[in-house]
Structures are given as structure tokens and as C-alpha cells.
């Protein structure tokens, strides 16, 4: 009898500890880091072309995925939060790849060709990459 | 010939008088806050595209996947179970500042603004009205607003609504135009 009670108590304790661990791990699920993901390699021109041809299909291919984009820097700016943004040009002068960067880029100048890796949020008037980083060749 | 020149100059002058001044940004900020018995959730995006014209027309567009949360679990839940962000990747608002005549865009100051228009979230469009401010600071114009939306108005449902996610969500808009 005593043993049975003890067993039940042990099982209960294990169960409670287990639930707490699961909850803790879920709560602390690490934030995605684009640096740790292998990006889909594409040029900014192709990415824009894919989105313009068929947005739904392009979303299936790129949305929420890490993408590594090669393109020419059209514009470097700071947004209202003080984060850097880089727009890569495409073959369409009105549409580019707008990237919001995690850190200020070094040695990036307008007109140079660079590689940026970020997570694709979809397309507004530009294709958008968030939490992006400049990749060194 | 002289008459034609004068006519062209006059036309150009009148044209410039009537030209709409258009302010725009590709990096406006919109955040939301949900306060429920079990948890508070806050998320924001700084990738909002917005245009605002001197006649009062105003529009916002954002990508649902652009919202950043304090933890990945919340972000995944939000996207997959509630907003179905893959199916409905965008949210937008199109409307007008109805008291635009009371806002002097060439004089610095903070002006109260009344906005009306249609808000589309989760594929559902609703007419909304909201109050906010338009701040004029030199060449910069800043639009701010805070309003509540009821999730059920946009067909957003789920087991955790009312427990971990509030029935009503507070939306904060802060867009700096150039």
C-alpha cells in the first residue's frame, strides 16, 4: 500500500516536472536566425520577376523562407526606428527588393553588387526581406 | 508665339497650384497589443508602406509575416492558427482624413485627425473610423493613430481567444513620411 502511494507520488512528480519542461522549452523556442539557415539563392531581378509573374506561386516558393539574394544596391537608408534598409534593383525600375537589416552594413555603397540573406515577407510594391544580413563573399 | 508662351506658363502655374502633395514611406511602423488573462502579446512591423496625399487620402499596406514577436512560439501561432498569414499575406487600409481642411500641412504643429475607411485583415474588409494625429515638422509629416479591432469582426477565431489572446486588439500606427 505504502509502495503504491509512493509510486503514484513519483509518477505525479515526474508528470508535473515533464509538463513544466515542455512549457519552458516551448516558451524559449529560439528566435529564427537567418544566419543559421541555408538561403534559397536567387538574383534580385529573378525574385522580382517571379513575384510579378505569379504572386501566389512566388509566395509558395519564397514566403517565410530564408533567401540569399544577389543584386545591385539602388538605395541605402535608415528607417524611422534607426535600422538600415537596402533596396536592390531589378529589371523593373519601379520594383526592387527592399531589405530591412539587423545591423548597419559596412562598406556597402550604392551601385555595388552585394549578397543579402533575409527572410521573405512577401511583396508590397517591392519584394520584402526582413531580419536581413549582408553576406560576405 | 508670345501668347502661347504665356498660356503655357499660366497652365504650368495653375497645374502646380492644384498638384497633390503626396507623402510616402516604405518603412512605417504598426504594432498591436493583446492583453488577455493568461498572457500579453505584443508584435510590431516596421515595413509598412503608406501614402498620404494633401487632399486627405491615406492608405496603408503591410505583410502579416513581417510582424515580429518577442518569442517564436507566439509568432508561429499567430501566423499559422489565427491570421493564416500564408493564405492572407497582406493587410491594408484605404481611406480619408475627413477633417483634412483643418490640417495645415505647411505649418508645423500637431493636428487632430479623423480617419474613415476600409480595413482588410484576414481577407475580411470592414468600414472603420478612428482618431489620430497628423504632425507636421518641417518637411516631415508623421501620422499616428491608436484604435481597437474585434477579432471576430475579421473572422479570426480559435480556442485561445479570450484566454491567451484578447477578443479586442489595440493597433498603434506610427508612420513618418518624407
Characterize the structure shown:
The complex is a heterodimer of chains A (137) and B (178). Chain A is α/β, with parallel strands linked by helices and 137 residues long. Chain A has two domains: 1-30; 34-135, Nucleic acid-binding proteins (OB fold (Dihydrolipoamide Acetyltransferase, E2P), Beta Barrel). In chain A, 32% of the residues lie in helices and 36% in strands. Chain A is built from three helices and six strands. The mean pLDDT of chain A is 91. Chain B has one domain: Lipocalin, CATH 2.40.128.110. Chain B has an eight-stranded antiparallel β-barrel with strand order 1-2-3-5-6-7-8-9. Chain B has helices at 2-18, 72-82, and strands at 22-35, 40-53, 57-63, 68-69, 90-97, 109-121, 124-137, 140-150, 168-177. Chain B has two helices and nine strands, in the order H-E-E-E-E-H-E-E-E-E-E. With 178 residues, chain B is α+β, with helices and mostly antiparallel strands. In chain B, a hairpin with a 3-residue loop joins strand 2 and strand 3.
Notable characteristics:
heterodimer, A: 137 residues, alpha/beta, OB fold (Dihydrolipoamide Acetyltransferase, E2P), five-stranded mixed beta barrel, 3 helices, B: 178 residues, alpha+beta, Lipocalin, eight-stranded antiparallel beta barrel, 2 helices, 52% strand, elongated
Amino acid at each position: 500500500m505504502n509502495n503504491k502511494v509512493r509510486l503514484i507520488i513519483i509518477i505525479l512528480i515526474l508528470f508535473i516536472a515533464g509538463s513544466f519542461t515542455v512549457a519552458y522549452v516551448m516558451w524559449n523556442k529560439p528566435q529564427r536566425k537567418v544566419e543559421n539557415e541555408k538561403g534559397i539563392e536567387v538574383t534580385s531581378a529573378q525574385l522580382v520577376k517571379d513575384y510579378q509573374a505569379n504572386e501566389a506561386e512566388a509566395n509558395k516558393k519564397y514566403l517565410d523562407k530564408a533567401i540569399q539574394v544577389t543584386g545591385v544596391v539602388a538605395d541605402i537608408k535608415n528607417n524611422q526606428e534607426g535600422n538600415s534598409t537596402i533596396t536592390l534593383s531589378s529589371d523593373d525600375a519601379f520594383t526592387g527588393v527592399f531589405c530591412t537589416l539587423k545591423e548597419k552594413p559596412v562598406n556597402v555603397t550604392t551601385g555595388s553588387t552585394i549578397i543579402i540573406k533575409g527572410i521573405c515577407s512577401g511583396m508590397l510594391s517591392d519584394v520584402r526581406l526582413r531580419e536581413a544580413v549582408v553576406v560576405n563573399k | 508665339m508670345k501668347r502661347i508662351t504665356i498660356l503655357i506658363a499660366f497652365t504650368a502655374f495653375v497645374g502646380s497650384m492644384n498638384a497633390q502633395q503626396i507623402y510616402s514611406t516604405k518603412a512605417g511602423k504598426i504594432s498591436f497589443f493583446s492583453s488577455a488573462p493568461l498572457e500579453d502579446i505584443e508584435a510590431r512591423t516596421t515595413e509598412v508602406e503608406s501614402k498620404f496625399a494633401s487632399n486627405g487620402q491615406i492608405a496603408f499596406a503591410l505583410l502579416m509575416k513581417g510582424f515580429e514577436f518577442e518569442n517564436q512560439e507566439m509568432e508561429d501561432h499567430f501566423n499559422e492558427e489565427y491570421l493564416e498569414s500564408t493564405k492572407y499575406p497582406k493587410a491594408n487600409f484605404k481611406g480619408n482624413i475627413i477633417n483634412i481642411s483643418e490640417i495645415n500641412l505647411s505649418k508645423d504643429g500637431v493636428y487632430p485627425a479623423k480617419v474613415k475607411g476600409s480595413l482588410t485583415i484576414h481577407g475580411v474588409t470592414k468600414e472603420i473610423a478612428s482618431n489620430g494625429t497628423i504632425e507636421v515638422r518641417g518637411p516631415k509629416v508623421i501620422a499616428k493613430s491608436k484604435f481597437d479591432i474585434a477579432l471576430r469582426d475579421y473572422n479570426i477565431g480559435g480556442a485561445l481567444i479570450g484566454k491567451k489572446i484578447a477578443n479586442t486588439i489595440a493597433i498603434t500606427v506610427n508612420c513618418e513620411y518624407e
